[in-house]
């Protein structure tokens, strides 16, 4: 059994916490935990807007706190995001996520994020359209 | 893109909401959503105690609200559960979960729950030690 505490991981501020200016993600479970998925708590700054496309992953995102919206770029459809709303990117959907208030999201990835992708996502290697807040 | 609202699912009170006297689980994503995992929001009643063993699944459980404890039956070790604590059953660990206050948990299963297991889990077919709050 693995037991981890979000608040202690944030306090430690080690490699399980990844961020840029507008988002921060805490990696609660990664590929090497052997669960077959990864699990992340992600904070998106109030007023921020993000364009994401997870070409190689499915991701589900459950809103625990905050408000905003998501636009599916393929269809043009926009959905309200608030506490209790979940979206699942079952078609590797390219999308725009907007945080009106700070969003706190519980995110699952399949296949699991390894940590290597996270470093790529976090700036130096990945193209902008390949960024992943994980 | 799949978009679902926990509160609307609870209001509708259809087959996505499963419960017994001491817990209720809302199935946000099931196997047929094609994500490769399932995702559930589960409520465990204050004062309740549950013995679970997921013989065929890995499960991670993130505490969004409430307080309690979990005992790993194999090791005898007990861990405090509170907001921000996650446990992951990476060894199909048989365990006792206690809710001191109502627990609200975000749960991921791999392989994904299909709904068929849920009916089994929900009473008529499953042996007690095989119960799964999913």
TrEMBL record, chains A, B:
The keyword Ribonucleoprotein does not apply. Keywords: Lyase. Pathway: Amine and polyamine biosynthesis; ectoine biosynthesis; L-ectoine from L-aspartate 4-semialdehyde: step 3/3. SUPFAM superfamilies: RmlC-like cupins. It holds the Pfam family Ectoine_synth. GO terms for molecular function: ectoine synthase activity. Transmembrane segments: none annotated. Its EC number is 4.2.1.108. The keyword Lyase applies. Belongs to the ectoine synthase family. Catalyzes the circularization of gamma-N-acetyl-alpha,gamma-diaminobutyric acid (ADABA) to ectoine (1,4,5,6-tetrahydro-2-methyl-4-pyrimidine carboxylic acid), which is an excellent osmoprotectant. This is L-ectoine synthase. The lineage of its organism: Bacteria, Pseudomonadati, Pseudomonadota, Alphaproteobacteria, Rhodobacterales.
């Amino acid at each position: 059994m693995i037991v981890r505490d979000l608040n202690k991981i944030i306090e430690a501020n080690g490699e399980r916490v990844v961020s840029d200016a507008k988002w921060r993600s805490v990696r609660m479970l990664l590929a090497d935990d052997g669960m077959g998925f990864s699990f992340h708590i992600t904070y998106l700054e109030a007023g921020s807007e993000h364009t994401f496309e997870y070409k190689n992953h499915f991701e589900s995102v459950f809103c625990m706190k905050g408000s905003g919206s998501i636009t599916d770029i393929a269809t043009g459809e926009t959905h309200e995001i608030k506490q209790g709303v979940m979206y699942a990117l079952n078609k590797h959907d390219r999308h725009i996520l907007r945080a009106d208030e700070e969003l706190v999201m519980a995110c699952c990835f399949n296949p699991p994020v390894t940590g290597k992708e996270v470093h790529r996502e976090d700036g130096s290697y990945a193209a902008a359209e390949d960024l992943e807040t994980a």
